[in-house]
């Protein structure tokens, strides 16, 4: 393989890119700086196929889920542990508009894999209409990312830096910038967006799956423990958990859980979001050996495996990338 790749950024996007290189036998190294506010460590890791108030299929979800299942199963075999699970997501239909939108999907053949008519006794007792999104998945992102880094370190493919790399002097032919919200030098399209979540204990509360109300309630392995998030703040002043975020999350919990809330941990992370909700992937205009792999926001779990493979096919095999993800749709600052 004649093209050696340097991946800058050892977060979720960077590690997915690195493992995709490893799988395809493409020579690479990955480098990163430890910084506060890693989004992957605070993420729920959800792949939700049906989103929004009108319950529409997420962009490209059929292709993305197929690739995600295949990729994460491969990594589980590589790491020797399980991190990726199928889940159901409960959507409460709290008003007539929501119920009407849901009913439009129930018998739509395009939604057959994602809209379920199943019922749960515990939810029926609440006397609140609800629907079940099926065909969803959850990746334990913090555990998976730790395992990925350990694997890459063991193979001597990952190195930690104490300061940013000078990209112009590295001895490599191709550079993939997977730096998330930290570094926006080459694109004005990235919007840093701080997400916050709480790990809480909710005594006596049992859920048959993940619940999406104002926030997500994600049952954890430990009894009565839940990941609850997210609270978003674009262009944050700092990457740390905020009192405002804590108050808003506790308020959202109290609206559907009547008991005492025990906060175990307050998490935060800064995601690289994009206003058109499409990732920024491809070559950087004016920099023929540099490529962006960024802007996946809250959907990195579903987007990264598919688009890492597409980007490498573009770099190695000159396979075109669709214009919808092209970095040139945003102004690029000359280097």
Compact description:
With 335 residues, the chain is an alpha/beta fold. It has 7 helices and 17 strands.
CATH topology of the largest domain: FAD/NAD(P)-binding domain
Q: Taking Cα atoms only, what radius of gyration do you get, to the nearest Å? A: 20 Å
Main sheet overview: 9 strands, mixed
- The number of E-state strands comes to 17
Identify the CATH class of the largest domain. Alpha Beta
Provide the fold topology.
Elements: E1 5-8, H1 12-24, E2 28-33, E3 46-47, E4 50-51, E5 56-57, H2 61-79, E6 84-92, H3 96-106, E7 115-116, H4 121-124, E8 130-139, H5 141-154, E9 158-161, E10 174-177, E11 190-201, E12 210-212, E13 216-219, E14 225-234, H6 243-254, E15 262-274, E16 280-284, E17 287-294, H7 300-317
Parallel strand pairs: 1-2, 1-10, 2-9, 6-12, 10-17
Antiparallel strand pairs: 3-8, 4-5, 6-8, 7-8, 11-14, 11-15, 12-13, 13-14, 16-17
Helix pairs in contact: 1-5, 1-7, 2-7
List keywords for this structure.
6-stranded mixed sheet; about 325 residues; 3 domains; FAD/NAD(P)-binding domain; alpha/beta; single chain
């Amino acid at each position: 393989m004649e093209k050696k790749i340097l991946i800058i950024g050892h977060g979720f996007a960077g590690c997915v890119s690195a493992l995709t290189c490893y799988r395809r036998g493409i020579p690479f190294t990955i480098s990163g700086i430890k910084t506060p506010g890693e989004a992957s460590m605070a993420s729920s890791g959800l792949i939700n196929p049906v989103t929004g108030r009108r319950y529409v299929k997420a962009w490209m979800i059929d292709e993305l889920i197929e690739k995600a299942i295949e990729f994460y199963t491969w990594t589980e075999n590589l790491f020797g542990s399980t991190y990726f699970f199928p889940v159901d997501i409960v959507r409460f239909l709290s008003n007539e508009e929501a119920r009407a939108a849901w009913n439009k999907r129930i018998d739509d053949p395009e939604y057959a894999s994602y809209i379920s008519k199943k019922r749960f006794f515990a939810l029926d007792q609440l006397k609140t209409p609800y629907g079940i999104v099926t065909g969803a998945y959850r990746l334990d992102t913090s555990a998976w990312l730790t395992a990925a880094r350990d694997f890459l370190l063991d193979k001597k493919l990952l190195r930690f830096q104490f300061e940013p790399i000078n990209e112009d002097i590295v001895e490599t032919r191709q550079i993939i910038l997977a730096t998330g919200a930290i570094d926006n030098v080459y694109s004005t399209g990235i919007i840093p967006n701080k997400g916050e979540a709480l790990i809480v204990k909710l005594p006596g509360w049992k859920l048959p799956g993940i619940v999406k109300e104002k926030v997500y309630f994600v049952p954890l392995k430990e009894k009565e423990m839940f990941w609850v998030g997210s609270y978003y703040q674009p262009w944050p002043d700092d990457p740390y958990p905020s009192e405002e975020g804590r108050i808003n999350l506790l308020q959202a919990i109290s609206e559907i859980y009547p008991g005492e809330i025990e906060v175990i941990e307050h998490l935060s992370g800064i995601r690289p979001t994009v206003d058109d909700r499409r990732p920024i992937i491809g070559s950087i205009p004016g920099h023929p050996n540099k490529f962006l792999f960024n802007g996946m926001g809250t959907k990195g779990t579903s987007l990264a495996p598919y688009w890492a493979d597409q980007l490498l096919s573009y770099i190695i095999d000159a396979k075109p990338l669709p214009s919808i993800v092209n970095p040139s749709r945003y102004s690029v600052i000359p280097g």
